[in-house]
Amino acid sequence: MVEKLKMIWQDAKQLKDERGLTLVELLVVVVILGIIAAIAVVAIGGIIENSKKDAMVADAKQMVSAAKLYVASNDVADGKVIRFVGTVGTDELDAKNMIDTMKDPFGETYNNGVVYVSKADSKYTYKVWLDGAEDIGTAATAAGTIASGDLDKEDVK
């Protein structure tokens, strides 16, 4: 019994003599955690930016789909502009009621949203201009719009 008490006493004494982490070890751990946090913040920032661009491209594709529905039920001449967002010009078609209000992922609302329709023979092609805090295209013209088949997040500028 006395032997067991001596062993317990020695074990307890050894535990008291052991020290915790040194200051250098703690600093190394803190530095490593700081580096990991910095990498994570940069990576998450890039993911958020890409998701905003993807949302804007999805809005543009939604406008093209709505324009296709409009063209399917209405005769649309070559070079017509179908406006979904913004002030309708004199030679533009008003289609604001075809899409719910779209929110600009980079800001509040879009300033302009149009689809430029070209007709060759009986085939239509569609180009998009979406103007907000960031833009897809530059104007409601054939040269200022982006072809609907080529839309991707690199077009968001």
UniProtKB/TrEMBL annotation:
UniProt name for this protein: Prepilin-type N-terminal cleavage/methylation domain-containing protein
Short name of one Pfam family: N_methyl
Keywords (A to Z) from UniProt: Competence, Membrane, Methylation, Transmembrane, Transmembrane helix
Residue ranges crossing the lipid bilayer per the database entry: 21-48
Intracellular or extracellular location(s): Cell surface
Domain of life: Bacteria
Gene3D superfamilies for this protein: Glycoprotein, Type 4 Pilin
Primary location group: other
Organism whose genome encodes this protein: Exiguobacterium marinum
